[in-house]
Design brief:
The structure holds two protein chains of two kinds. Chain A is mainly α. Chain A is built from 14 helices and no strands. In chain B, helix 3 packs parallel to helix 7, helix 7 runs antiparallel to helix 9 and helix 10 packs antiparallel against helix 11. Chain B is elongated. The chains are: A mainly alpha, B alpha/beta. Chains A and B meet through helix 1, helix 6, helix 7, helix 8 and helix 9 of A and helix 4, helix 5, helix 9, helix 10 and helix 11 of B.
């Protein structure tokens, strides 16, 4: 129980840190984002609504002499209400709506691809580690090449080969634009089909790290006394491999999930750009290119919260798969 | 207690291997390209009206859509990417060392705070943060140093965590404690005692930081958020993407920059393998010989007289390597049914290697080079252990010969319950047994060794050391084996618990009639429990006689020395004057 409370407390602190960082970054940076935003709004023919200006000021900082603490509290208040202002690049859609429509795409893409990469990587790593000293060892350096390849470049190559040259997969987008998004077979099939290349990019780039980490832990674990005991007990290879070696070897991989997820999220943002995928990464870049600071700030927060939530979930899972944590402290 | 030597520089130099060779070659070539290349190629920005041309003739790698030479651009871009990678690598490693090493060394509140800070920085996704920060910095102020600083600030946390863990373990070592007790200043202790031992790890973290920096910078530049007026491999890809290189099939434009990044990263990763092997020697390449057990020429022992259960004849075990170590040399022993045969000798004399070889548990590079192991089974007759097929060997293990291992603390799987670890023995060797019967058998055995059967539901970490060892003994007896090998079964336990467990073993031997090969460095203990004692020195048996003879009339000088080094057992004080963990 103490473990869970500590984890929960940690993620609350991390969340607070991210929110605060988000508050201070625009205030510390040179330039006046609020004026840029207001100018943009005026170009769009929107009257300068004082309440809109107020929302932006809370988000991005203000020249007025309102105390920082009060600004900070009002900013937190707006966050709790989900009020991030109006997006200027998707004018006049509220930022929260822009995020709500693009987030599911990214969550599905990154989620499915990560789960696949983790499963493949761990299973292969366990196997390569177990069969150490055979030809499988040569797989290990090969996978590092894959992890050293920039995500977006791999995406470009995949598009060039599987998309353009062979014509197996669509080049761009998240679904066939003639279809209307909704829960029907046509649309879901199209979305899956369009998701293959982006997902493949993420899986290929991240599987190597999981494989290597698991393989190295497997090698260390196989030298443990309990694996020797298992062999002395005359258990079958499979049982020794899975329940004695692998079961212990995956624990650090799971614990190190946070680090890997950071890489995946970073990679997928850039990958989305290559595929013009309708996810949150593309929106972030759209926001950056259009000085849509409100959208940008909100997306940063949403990505952070999603990553924190994923990490929390994995930490809770870790508490389940490692009995020492569950009963210890 | 001896002081361990400080970091030995010979262990810090990577061993030569093909991976290291290829890795260094890649790094050197690409670095050279970045350093010298720009001097040899033309102006990368010169615009030519030939437009997009494929490789050939005047332009080895073709030109961009404005007729700029791709090769020249690559040379300059490589220099730019390496520069920023190195810059970030140095800064990020410095930050991680600061927060990881200093925090862990200082301990207390500082460590808590530093560690919390690192962990928070770790879970906040780096690239989105970098993008947001870069977006707020106007392009004209976004120089190489700004970008490098931002990348370093968002990229040090993971390695700080690794360094902290390692520093924590180093901090408790004898030589560090000695230096601290001697009153050396913290900076000196960190610099002289800790840092050298962390060098391989720091090097590895630096390598990762450089790879990550080059990749992240490439990503940032590809998004158009890189340092303004810089030319890196990422900016090249940005222009290629915006010049529709992909759609026009201009592979010579977008393939080479990515390839350079991939090859450089791959080179660093390969070098990192060698560094990893220094940090964790277990990862070194193993060359496994074909056929895991070299079949020695010796024939199995002929069936001896009745009452013998295990015969070793001329057994030799060698650790193969550049300088082979002959750990067990020409050992012949016989173990009678129901007998306790003690095998004594100091640490490193080959006792444990011998015990493993009996059951063929030795692992490469250890190899049985000569001799035979014959098990005289009550039912199946003589078994030539070294000739068993893997499946026969598996079935033999535990059902006829079981073991209780040295490391009582670690011999049980930490993530399985006691029940699971006992029952899998039964479900593998006695598949016909019903669930209920299996459960009953486990309960019986635990009761037999004096452990509450409710402990079946426990995990190993919930049991005390003595209880764990009792569980191991119960497990060893599950299948009613004819021989039990005990390898230092009580070494890690305190004297009172030791006594209890020894009494238990003696009682069970009387009840169940198995033979015991009892391995220990503790000769007085053997004098008390063993029927016969063999003394091992340097891989050879130098004395093999009934226990009384060893005590009263030792023949070998080494035996006399061993006996002399312990307080008398039969002295005035009468009882068991031994300390827990002698020598």
């Amino acid at each position: 129980m103490r473990y869970y409370l500590r984890k929960l407390a940690f993620y609350l602190v991390a969340l607070w840190a991210a929110v605060t960082l988000n508050f201070f970054i625009p205030r510390m940076m040179p330039g006046d984002p609020v004026d840029i935003l207001m100018a943009k709004l005026q170009q769009r023919g929107s009257g300068v609504d004082p309440s809109a200006r107020r929302a932006y000021e809370l988000l991005l900082g203000t020249d007025s002499d309102e105390p920082l603490l009060r600004q900070y509290l009002s900013y937190l208040g707006n966050l709790v209400r989900g009020d991030f202002g109006i997006s200027v690049s998707d004018f006049p859609t509220p930022v929260s709506t822009v995020i709500a429509t693009s987030l599911p795409w990214t969550v599905a893409l990154v989620g499915i691809a990560t789960v696949m990469a983790v499963l493949f990587g761990i299973v292969l790593g366990v196997f390569v580690g177990w069969r150490r000293g055979t030809w499988l060892d040569s797989l290990v350096p090969a996978t590092t090449v894959l992890s050293a390849v920039p995500y977006f470049w791999l995406a470009l190559i995949l598009v060039a080969v599987l998309g353009s040259a062979l014509g197996w997969f669509p080049l761009l987008g998240g679904y066939d634009v003639v279809l209307t998004p909704g829960w029907n077979a046509d649309f879901l099939g199209s979305a899956l089909y369009h998701g293959v290349l982006p997902a493949l990019t993420i899986v290929i780039s991240s599987v190597g790290g999981w494989l290597l980490g698991t393989r190295n832990m497997m090698v260390s674990t196989m030298a443990e006394d309990y694996v020797l005991t298992a062999r002395a007990k005359g258990l079958r290879e499979r049982r020794v491999m899975v329940w004695y070696a692998a079961r212990n070897a995956v624990l650090p991989s799971v614990a190190g999930f946070a680090i890997s997820l950071g890489f995946v999220v970073a990679g997928s943002i850039v990958t989305e750009q290559v595929f013009a995928y309708p996810g949150i990464g593309s929106k972030l870049l759209q926001a950056v290119q259009n000085n849509d600071y409100a959208l940008m700030q909100a997306i940063f927060l949403v990505i952070t919260v999603a990553v924190l939530a994923a990490n929390l979930a994995v930490d809770l899972l870790y508490g389940i798969i490692d009995p020492r944590i569950r009963t210890g402290g | 207690m001896t002081l361990q030597p400080r970091a030995d520089w010979r262990h810090l130099v990577p061993r030569w291997s093909p991976k290291l060779a290829v890795g260094s070659a890649l790094i050197l070539t690409i670095t050279l390209c970045g350093l010298v290349g720009p001097l040899l190629v033309g102006d990368p920005d010169r615009i030519d009206n030939i437009g997009l041309t494929p490789p050939g003739g005047g332009h080895l790698l073709g030109t961009t859509q404005t007729g700029q030479d791709v090769l020249a651009q690559i040379a300059y871009a490589t220099r730019g990417s390496l520069y920023i990678g190195l810059l970030v690598g140095v800064m990020a490693t410095f930050l991680s060392a600061l927060f990881g090493i200093v925090g862990a060394y200082a301990g207390g509140v500082v460590d808590e705070a530093f560690s919390l800070f690192s962990n928070v920085m770790l879970v906040i996704p780096g690239l989105p943060l970098v993008i947001v920060i870069s977006a707020f910095v106007p392009p004209e102020q976004r120089g190489v140093w700004t970008v490098a600083l931002v990348l370093a600030i968002t990229g040090w946390a993971a390695s700080a965590r690794v360094l902290r863990a390692q520093t924590l373990s180093l901090r408790g070592r004898d030589y560090v404690l000695a230096a601290r007790v001697a009153g050396e200043r913290p900076w000196r202790v960190i610099g002289v005692e800790i840092l050298p031992n962390l060098l391989p790890l720091l090097a590895s973290q630096f390598v990762f930081a450089v790879i990550a920096a080059i990749l992240n910078e490439a990503g940032l530049s590809f998004l158009g958020l890189g340092a303004s007026s810089s030319s890196t491999l990422g900016t090249m890809l940005y222009y290629a993407q915006n010049g529709f290189a992909l759609q026009r099939g201009a592979w010579w434009w977008f393939v080479p920059p990515g390839l350079v990044i991939a090859l450089f990263g791959c080179g660093l990763a390969l070098v990192n393998f060698s560094i990893d092997e220094i940090i964790n020697p277990k990862l070194r390449d193993l060359r496994r010989r074909v056929g895991a057990v070299a079949r020695p020429a010796t024939d199995p022992a002929p069936s001896p007289g009745d009452g013998v259960v295990l015969t070793l004849t001329g057994l030799s075990v060698t650790y193969q390597g550049e300088r082979p170590v002959h750990a067990v040399r020409d050992v012949s022993l016989t173990l009678r049914r129901g007998e306790i045969l003690g095998l004594a000798g100091e640490s490193g004399c080959g006792k444990t290697t011998l015990a493993y070889a009996v059951n063929r548990l030795h692992r490469p590079p250890a190899e049985v080079t000569a001799g035979s192991v014959t098990f005289h089974d009550r039912v199946a007759g003589d078994l030539d252990i070294l000739a068993l097929t893997p499946e026969e060997l598996r079935a033999f293990r535990w059902s006829k010969l079981s073991m209780v291992f040295q490391g009582a603390m670690n011999a049980l799987n930490p993530v399985l319950t006691i029940r699971a670890q006992m029952q899998d023995v039964l479900s593998t060797h006695r598949p016909a047994m019903s669930r209920a019967a299996r459960r009953a058998r486990c309960v019986d055995l635990l009761t037999l060794v004096g452990v509450d059967p409710r402990r079946l539901r426990s995990y190993p970490h919930e049991l005390s050391g003595g209880m764990r060892q009792r569980v191991m003994i119960a497990m060893a007896l599950l299948l009613d084996p004819q021989v039990v090998i005990l390898d230092e079964p009580t070494t890690a336990l305190d004297v009172v618990v030791q006594r209890g467990i020894l009494r238990e073993i003696m009682r069970l031997r009387g009840e169940l009639g198995f033979a015991v090969l009892f391995i220990t460095h503790d000769l007085p203990l053997l004098l008390e429990v063993a029927d016969r004692i063999a003394i091992m020195l340097d891989g050879q048996i130098v004395e093999d006689a009934p226990a009384e003879d060893v005590r009263d009339r030792p023949r070998h000088a080494y035996t006399r020395r061993l006996l002399g080094s312990f307080p008398s057992l039969t002295g005035e004080r009468g009882a068991f004057v031994r300390s827990g963990g002698v020598s």
